[in-house]
Amino acid sequence: MLNRNPAALAHPLWLCGFRPFFLATALSAAGLIALWGAFLGHGLPLPPVAGGPFVWHAHELIFGFSLAAVAGFALTAIPEFTGTASVPARPVRMLFALWLAGRAGFWLSGGIGAPALAVAGLIHLGLVAGLVALLAPRLLADLERRHLSFLWALVAFAVLIAGFYADALAGASPARWLHAAVGLLMILVVLAMSRISMRIVNAALDERGESPDYRARPPKRNLAIVCIAAYTAAEFLAPGERIGGWLALAAAAALCHLQSDWHVGRALFRRWPLMLFAVYVLMAAGYGLIGFALVSGSDGVSAGRHLLTVGAIGLSIYMVLNIAGRMHCGRELDERLWVPLGAAALFAAAVVRAATALPGVPANLLLALSSLLWIGVFALWLWHMAPLLAGPRTDGGTGCQGIVDKAG
Questions:
Q1: Are residues 236 and 135 located together in one domain of the fold?
Q2: N or C: which end of the chain has fewer CB within 10 A?
Q3: Which domain holds residue 119?
């Protein structure tokens, strides 16, 4: 009999790590941007945290929205990649409680002061440490160590969180750690896309009756990761310098080179491969704009950064929510029109947000339009997907078992 109490471990919400974290991802995506838009457009006060409104906005989108998506993906994908059992409900619920407590601690830090800020930092570190403790043994037990990069990414997240809170507690601006976290998220996107794309692109080739021989080649992926890391380090150590511009242009070129793996003919223009491919387009464009702006001394860094954040991060997370969110509920991919319309709306939201940096444009109007597009996409996702994630499986599968596993 279905347990209808969400607090009970037997409730379907705790059946797999992605369920509570993906719901939190979509809810925070819509809610955080609604609050940010209300602040910019109508002066609604935001929590008075260290660093001011910008730091609150960036911190919550990175260590709130994005970290929730990373946690949900890692708790689901790593057991699948390593062929190990699903993470049990109790630690999933404990990790989710830490995520919620992190939101409360950071939001209250402006009013309570350093003690709340220190507690918020420890809570965020506890969340990432919990993920490492649960997942590291699985990754290290794989003799080929094929997915160990996800472990190093989680460790890097912990370092960035520690640095952010150390600067905030010392009274220094912690924004540099947030910019570095954007670079880390770009690397995680490349790592995750290399796994997801092989299944999606080869399925599209197979549907067209073509040989499913697409491979995400490590040399191109590694080159892109190295270039992104180099730019991120330059931005951290020497923000605004021309060397960062050249490294950003190198990252854009490496990402364009990486896109050549996707030249698989007409299969690329099927909805799922095309939506994933658009993530790389936004990443390359974002780094390209940043690089051009820094090298030429012109405006454009903010526009490029929003192509990375609103665009590449937003769209990649949306795709993970739709692909992993359904397949690990034991469902086929949703082929209804709302999914590609949502992807197109996020792409448009990124372009419109970047356009606010152009001279002579109605920036407030474009900002409002971008916010509404973003909020609408994640609200629509919640409408369609929340009942699945909070409800029982109907396919006979258990835990995080995917639809492919179910047939096996």
A1: no
A2: N
A3: 13-173
Last residue of a domain, one of 173, 206, 240: 173
Residue 228 lies in a domain: yes
Helix or strand or coil: residue 1? coil
Q: Tokens 């995520």 label which residue?
A: 99
Return the SS3 of 349: helix
* 300 conformational bin, left if phi > 0, alpha if psi -120 to 50, beta if neither: left
Task: Please list the pLDDT of the chain residue by residue as tens digits (408 residues).
Answer: 556 777 788 889 999 999 999 999 999 999 999 999 999 988 889 999 988 999 999 999 999 999 999 999 999 999 999 999 999 999 999 999 999 999 999 999 988 989 999 999 999 999 999 999 999 999 999 878 889 999 999 999 999 999 999 999 999 999 999 999 999 999 999 999 999 999 999 999 999 889 888 888 899 999 999 999 999 999 999 999 999 999 999 999 999 999 999 989 999 999 999 999 999 999 999 999 999 999 999 889 999 999 999 999 999 999 999 999 999 998 999 999 999 999 999 999 999 999 998 888 999 999 999 999 999 999 999 999 999 999 998 888 888 887 744 333
Do 190 and 163 share a structural domain? no
My answer on whether 128 and 189 are in the same domain is no
CA angle 52, 57, 59 (to 5 degrees): 95
Per the domain annotation, does 372 fall within a domain? yes
One domain for residues 196 and 303: yes
In a domain, 90, yes or no: yes
Last residue of a domain, one of 154, 173, 192: 173
Looking at the domain assignment, is residue 18 inside a domain?
Answer: yes
Taking alpha carbons only, the member of 20, 116, 9, 2 closest to residue 390 is 20
The tokens 């590449």 sit on which residue? 312
CB atoms within 10 A of CB 278: 20
